[in-house]
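REVIEWER CHECKLIST
Item 1: Sequence provided? yes
Item 2: Single chain? yes
Item 3: Sequence as submitted:
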Amino acid sequence: MPIRPELPPIGAPRRAPSPRAPGRSLPAILSAGLLLAGCAQGTPGPGTPSEQARRALAEQRQQGPVRAVVRGNPFGMDEARRDALVSEAMADGVSGLSVRFTTYPEAAAAPEPHLVVVLDPVEPVAAETVCSAPDSVPTTPAGETLSVLAVFCQGDRAVHAVREAAAVAGPTDRRFERLLWRTAGALFPDDYAESYGFGFLPRWLSFGLGGSFGL
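Item 4: Structure as written out by the authors:
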């Protein structure tokens, strides 16, 4: 579920002005275009936070592995094993894109944007804090329900953040992997109907409704 409200959907495009419209000289039109182009630089672009995150991920993954940070260790796993399990499952959960996440900064194609995954965070926690200081985010040991907070960051700014939860018995419980798949799918959602048709299902829905939603 999104941590913060999505932006409203973009409305229907406006009709382009007639080339003969009065009061619209060519220099004025060019100046307006340059102004808009200048404002667009360094901004996330149009769309909801989830659309911005998906677009940024799609662009970055073409350069190579995307940097990831994993925080929290509710099951007391070896950290290298935990990092590999989380980064691989999150990559597998991104439908329609071949993505690689790496927790080794030197192996990442670029330092930004980056993904932060927090296992069992203590509430409340701001998404910007997760981006800027992930090691400062307090976490809890495993309980009956495992909570996952995932934030896609551009520097210290949170592009998009989601939190998902499910009953998970341990790191080898398949519900753990499915929870991470579902988290990735919510963080980087794809337009399944437009891209793949209505018959396409994301990986985390292919195991039946019971396990899919952590019930």
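Item 5: Key structural point noted by reviewer: The beta strands are 66-71, 101-102, 114-119, 145-154, 157-167.
Item 6: Recommendation: ____
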